[in-house]
Every structure is written in C-alpha cells, then in structure tokens.
Amino acid sequence: MSHNPCDKIIRWYFTITLVESVLVSAWLVYAIVSPLLMLSKFSLRRLALVAFSTLFIILLSWLVIKLWKRPDQTKGFSWRICDIFTKPGIYIFTIFLSFIVLVGSFYILCISRLTTDQFLKTYLDYFAPIAAWLLVLSIQTPIAVRLMRFGYDFQVLSSERKALIFGSIFFGLLLLISAWLIWTKIGLTPDALGWWGPGAPILPAQVTLALLFLAAALLVSFFFHRFRIFKNSSARRFPAFTVDVLICILLWALAAWRWGGEPARPSYFAPQPRPPNFEVYPYSDAAGYDRSAQRLLIGYGFETDIIRPLYSFTLATIQAINGIGYENTLKGQILLLALIPSLLYLLAKILHLRVTGVLVGLLVIFRESNSIALSGMVNVSHAKLIMSDLPATLGVILFTLLVLLWLEKPSKRQVISLLAGGVLGLTMLVRVQVGVLLLPAFVVVWIIFRRQLRAGLINSLVLLAGVMLVLSPWLWRNWRLTGSLELSGITNPSQAGKIGQRYELSPADQKGREPLSPDDEDVFFQSSSTALEYVQKHGQDFSRFFAEHFFHNGVDAILALPSSFTFAPNMLKFYGLLPYWTSKPVKLWEYCCSLDGYVQDLPYWMDWTGGIGHASTLPLLLSLFFIGLGMGVVFSRLGVIGLIPLFFFVTYSMSNAVIRISGWRFILPVDWVGLLYYGIGLIQLIYWIGMFFTNVYLLNKVAKTEQPIQKTTGRVSWKVWLLAGAGLLLLGALMPVAELLIPPRYEESNLPSLIYNLQQEGKLSDSKVDVQALNSFLQKEGATAMVGRALYPRFYPAGEGEPGHGWASFTPKDFNRFSFYLIGPNPQAVILPANSSPAKFQHAEDVLVIGCKKEDYLEAYYVITLNEPDQMILQSPTREGLPSDCN
Length: 887
What we know:
The structure is a single chain. This protein has 887 residues and is mainly alpha-helical. 60% of the residues lie in helices and 5% in strands. The chain is built from 31 helices and six strands. The chain has a five-stranded mixed beta barrel. Helix 1 runs antiparallel to helix 2.
C-alpha cells in the first residue's frame, strides 16, 4: 500500500522521537541506579522524572505502533498535522521556537558541565537528560516541518553543490593542519624571541548583535518593498552604485563615531598623562613617528634614515590642518582609518554578497573598538595610537581590493593594475615589508594569463611600474642625501640590525659572536650575512622557529575570532553573585560579561603556554568551519582570485617568520583575512539554511573571471594612462617636495642675536639671568644654547619615568626633573632638574635652552619660552646661576 509523503514523515518523526525518549529514560534510570549502588541518598525528583518519561514513552509507543500498523486510520491525523505546520505563520514560528529551544538546551548542558557549585549542579543534572532530548528534538523538528511543507525537493540547493564540496575540502584541510599543530605543538609553544599574543578579540555577543542588525535591516527592506511604500515603482530600488556608496558612508561614519568615542587606557605607546598639562603624549615608536612629522612642520625635513616617511607625512598634514597636539592628530587619523570597514565591505561584496560586506564591516568596527578598550591591558595597536600598523592595514586592504577589481576583468581594467601598484608603493612607505605582496600578486597574474605569457608579462610590468612611479621620488631623495638608492629605514640600525640580532639571539648560538656595530655603514648587509651564516650552520633550528612563527600567525588570527561561548560561564558568575545582591551592589556587566572578563577568563592573552581549553573547542571548530566554507565558496565562484587575500596572508606571515616574529601588531596588516572568510562562511551558511527552509534560491549570481582572457577592441585612452601615471608620480613626490618647500623655523646662527633681542626687549631683565655671565658660560666646553620646539613636556619625581630605552628625556632618573624633547637645528633630549612641575608649559612651545651636554641628554639651566604673550623663563633650582664649567 502506498502512502503519501506526509504519512511517511510523521511516522518516522515520531519513531525517531520514541527512540530518543527511550535513551533519555535510560539516562535518567542510570542516574538513579548509580547513587543507589554507592549507597547515596535516593532522589525522589529523579524518580518522578523517570515516571513521567515512562508514561510519555508508553503513550508515544502506542502512537507509533498505530501509525505503522494502521496507516489508513491515521492518515487523517497525519494530514491534519501537516496542514497545521505548513501554514506560513505556524511554519515560521515552529522554526523560530526550535532555534530558541536549541540555544537554551545547549547552554543548559554547557552550564551543567562547567559549574562547580554542588547545589546548582544537582538541579542542572536533573534536567541535563531532558535538555539533551530537547536539543535533538529542536534539530529534527524544523527539518520535519520543512519536509511536510516542500517535500523532498532540494533542487534549490543543487546549484550550491560545488561550493559545498570546495568548502568541505578547505575545512578538512584546516582540520588536518589544526590536528597536526595540536599534536606537534608547532605554532602553540612559545619561541624564545618575537612571540606575541593575538590582537583584540571579537565577542560572540558582538557577532550576534551584527547578525541581528542585518536581520532587522533585511526585514525593513522586505516590508519596504512588500507593501510598496513608494508609490512610484521606478523609485523603489536605488541603483547598486548608490546603495554601495550609502553603505560605505554609513560604515565610515559609524566607525569614526564609535572609535572616536571609545576611551583608551594608558599604554606603552601612550603613557599616562603627567604634569604640567596632564595630556596624553606619544612614546617610543609612536613618539618617533610624530617627531619626524614635527621636524617636517618646522622646516628641517625628515631624518635621513626615517622609517615610516608616508605615515609621518600624514601626521604632519593632519596637524597642519587640525592644529598641533595628540588629540587633534587622533581626530584626523580616525577619520582616515575609518575607511577600513568601508573597504572591507567592498572587498567582501566582490567576493560574495553585499550583506556579507556589511557584516564584515560591522565586525571590524566592533573589533577595533575592543582594541581601544583593551589598550594597556593586552598588547594591541589601535586607531587611538600614533602607530603605523593600522595605516599599513588600510593600504593592504586597498591594494587587495584594487587587485581583485583588476583581475575580475583583466583585459578591461588594465589601468587599475597601475593604480594597485601605486597603492602598494605608498603602503611600502608606511611599512616597507608589504612589498612582499608583489610575489603572490605576480603568481596570480601568471595563473590567470598562463595561456598568454606576453599579456601576463605586460600586466606584471604595469603593476611594477605603478610601484616604481610612487617610490622613484623618494629613492631620488635618498640618493641625493646618501648617495645610494634605498627605501625607508633600510640603513637605520634599529631596523637593519633586527634580522641579524634575532638570529644572533637564538638559544642555540648565543655565544662566540660579536654584536653588530650600529655605526657601520653596511649594517644592513652585515646583518643579512650574519643571518645567512646562521642558516647555513643551524638550518634545522631556522626551520623550527620559521614554522613556529608562521603557524603562530594563523593561530592568532583564529583566536581573535569568538573563542568561547561566554554566556554559559557568565551565567555561573551571575548565579554566584545572587546571594550578595542585597549587600554588595555589583555591576553585572563589568563583572561577568565585559570584554575585560573575556580576555581574563581565556588564557590566550595572559601568558599563554599553548593549551586549548575545553570551552574553546566548539567555538574554534565553528570558526574553522566558517573560514573553510568561506574559502571554498569564493574559490568555487571566482577561482584563484577568490583566494588572493589568503595568499597575501600566507606570504606576509612568511616574511614575519623570516625575521622571527609573529602575532600582535606585526600581523595586523593582514589579520583581517581570517575575519573576511569567517564572515563569508557565516553568511553563506545562513543563506543555505534560509534556502533550505524557504525552498527559494536567495543568492545572486557572481560573474566569473575572464577565462581565457579575451582581447578587447576598446582600449583605455593614452590620456587616462598618462593621468594615472602622473597622479602616482605626484603622490610620491609630495614628501620630498614638502621637505624642500617648507622653510626652517629656527636658525642656529641667530642665537646670539636672539639672546641680544631678549635682553633689549627686557625679557631677561626681570629674571636672574645675567647676560654677561651667560655669554661667558657659552664659551666654555660642553656649554650650549639651543633653540627649537619642545615636545611632550612631562614632570617626573625621582625614580619615575617610562620603560624602555632610546628616549633619555623620559627614562627613569634618580632626581626630580622636568623633561621634554627638543627638535630644531640640533634635536636633543632635554632635562631640567626641578623640585616641582611648572604651572604651565605647552606642548610644541618655541624655546631657547641653555645648559650642559651630558652623555645622552642636555642638562638645562634655563628654558626660555619664545611664544608671545606668555613668555616665561624656567630655571633649575639646583644651582644658583650658571656653573663655572660643564664638568
């Protein structure tokens, strides 16, 4: 006898439910028998649950027998159930309710495993079998009602077979690599050098919030079109370009607002404010970048061996527009860096869908907010620090976007390859290391043009030409100053010696080598030869730490994604607080659900030794699944160009591993790649689930890359090529031209006349400065007078200062002092011994400093400000007048 599909679905649904119920009852019976065998206290509650489940099983067994033995009599029952659950409203409600039950049951099981409170564990153990049963039931129920509504028609998913296959392959590869890393501990066990933790994480709640925002936006859009709010049908849809522009503007504005409003804690690169101004000033690398910008602003140009010329030029431009100062600089920098979510939106839209781009953009905004909030607590580099990491990230993302746009239609968009090269050249002037991305770009070009080698060579040369057009003015500038063609910082001892020093410091070979001389003009080549010598002698050790740092970059990128379902342990914390609510007011969010609590509860940011906690197993597996699925989807649709972000990540990670460093800000320019594929995989799965339950194809068709390359009759005008090339050359020339055009603010030869003018104007007559004694003092050996701009004024009590080295003004000393850094004709660290801080002393004051040169700083006796009308003289109270000599 044949039966309709509805009968079969109902029969199997209740049969499977019966089997599950029997297993749950067996679980409950075992939970009763086990304590009885151990002569423990008998539980009436468990017995009541077993009795109720037994009664339920008897009734369910009767129904299942009747469904199988008398199908003709139960046909009407089956049809009535199908009729009820296939109604649109009930169908949607059933799926939604099943999802809520699924999440709730899952968290009950998690809490029952994590809790150590015996009272709470007792009650949770009662309900754990029921929660497990509800968990399984909440999975099979929506599948059953879908089959009732649409039958066995899965044609809507047939076109996604290729994406599913490739997604499974990539996920499988990631699982194999992960299993190998866990087994060998490579990438998990810290190396002796250059080993840093992951950047700021994204909370699971933030992923959920971004998805809810997207769901709300899509729902509003649905009603917008469903009920025809616009009467004019032609006005109901905006052009795709307009929609993209609006979304980019909204993401940019949201990022600028959110990042600008997030308070940052003091950190190494932005220490706590100190008197006299109690303002935040940069320190260490950050101060170095700003110091270069200040040198340009006062007309003395960059240092010969400046490390990040374009970034310092950008800082100078921002301060020329907004005004001098840390806060003014950050306002302009945030407006620039807020383009990152918009660019990632466009990138994700090209690779996948518009909604994916919005999700990735929102997650990036959340993550950067987390970075700012965690400043000073974990190692992060963020938009509120004067650091080059995020500007380099912006350049890499823009380069990736342009390469994708170009290679989508390489025969029609050749001029974009020139622009892409120009962007990479500009980014190299922020961080020269990104130049390694040319290698994977060339490889992809040759794969696409593999049947037209001449066209591949031309396109590669055009890309390289864009790079050289931007770099050539800077190379000319360096050749003019040094007599050699070199990029930024290549001869800077603090940079050039890093490779050799890191190889020198290997635990296997610390002895028997003399340190590199920072005064050696060939320090870069000396460092490189030292590294090569080490590789030849200790190739196995090099292979070990190279693999460790390379895979550690990938591990850190995964750990920055949700690594724990924090709701379960947070519920336990909430439960633990319940007895104290009346006596101890507690901010629940700050205690159990905050970002601080997340990084403190997980070990990955606090001296991690390589172990993966049980609470992270499932979240990390999901992250790997989404990333693998995202890779498979873009590869199935766009071919090899869909993996360009992955190639960039791998290549950049290798370049870090070569110099024996990984994690933290050093991988920041490319660690958005994992988030990009994560977002693609997550949205793809949601769309597949939606397609399964609606039986409607919801995805847009994605155009294939031109394969093979077709010749086009309409070529780009030579005027466009000329304009693009001239624009790139002009951009590269801005920095050396600015150095030449900005006149010096101070002249060392004018110091005697400056002192004379101060005397004539009566500026010195009211002070204790004896001009004749001053002129006599300046004739002595070691005595000096310097004029310039005072940066980062800070007062330190004895014994206090900033950590690190290289900034003598701010490192700890054994006496009270007022310190700043002087830039001008002769840049110099300045320390004025003082018992207390001056009442006022503005950052970037024009000053005349008189004192004695010490080993690494100038000990000041007088600091005379030159800005009208608040001119003042600071005098060291440790000496009466000027010393007889500087010895």
